[in-house]
C-alpha cells in the first residue's frame, strides 16, 4: 500500500476519533465541569465554568465539520 492510499484511512480514523471524543464530552459535561471545580463550589461557580465549556466544545465540532467536509483531491 502506498503512502497516498494510507493517508485517507488515517484521516478518516482521526476524524471519527475526534467525533467520538466530542460526543463523550457532551454526555459527561456536568462531570467534567465538576472536576475542574473545588470540592465545595457554589452554583454560581458551576454556572460560570459551564458557560466556559460550551465554546470549547463548539470549536471541536467546527474542527470536525471543516476537515470532514473539506473537498478531497483525487
Any overview of this molecule?
There is one protein chain. This protein has 74 residues and is mainly α. It has a domain at 43-69. The chain is built from three helices and no strands. It has helices spanning 3-27, 29-35, 43-68. α1 (3-27) packs antiparallel against α3 (43-68) and α2 packs across α3. The radius of gyration is 17 Å and the shape is elongated. The mean pLDDT is 80.
SSE order and pairing:
Layout (H helix, E strand, L loop, with lengths): L2 H25 L1 H7 L7 H26 L6
Q: Looking at the structure, what is the overall shape?
A: elongated
Number of helices: 3
Our estimate of the beta-strand percent is under 5%
Which parts are unreliable, with pLDDT below 50 for 5 consecutive residues or more? Answer: none
Oligomer: single chain
Give the number of DSSP strands: 0
What characterizes the major β-sheet? none
Report helical residue fraction: over 70%
Q: Could you give the order of the helices and strands?
A: HHH
Query: How many whole angstroms does the radius of gyration measure?
Result: 17 Å
Q: Tell me the span between the first and last alpha carbons.
A: 17 Å
| Class inferred from helices and paired strands | mainly alpha
What number is the mean pLDDT?
A: 80
Overview features:
78% helix, 74 residues, elongated, mainly alpha
In short:
The chain is mainly alpha-helical. The chain has 3 helices and no strands. 0% of the residues are buried.
Amino acid at each position: 500500500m502506498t503512502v497516498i492510499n494510507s493517508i485517507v484511512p488515517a484521516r478518516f480514523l482521526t476524524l471519527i476519533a475526534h467525533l467520538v471524543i466530542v460526543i463523550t464530552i457532551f454526555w459527561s459535561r456536568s462531570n467534567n465541569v465538576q472536576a475542574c471545580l473545588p470540592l465545595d463550589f457554589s452554583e454560581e461557580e458551576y454556572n460560570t465554568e459551564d458557560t466556559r465549556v460550551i465554546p470549547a466544545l463548539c470549536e471541536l465540532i467546527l474542527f470536525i465539520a471543516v476537515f470532514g467536509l473539506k473537498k478531497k483531491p483525487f
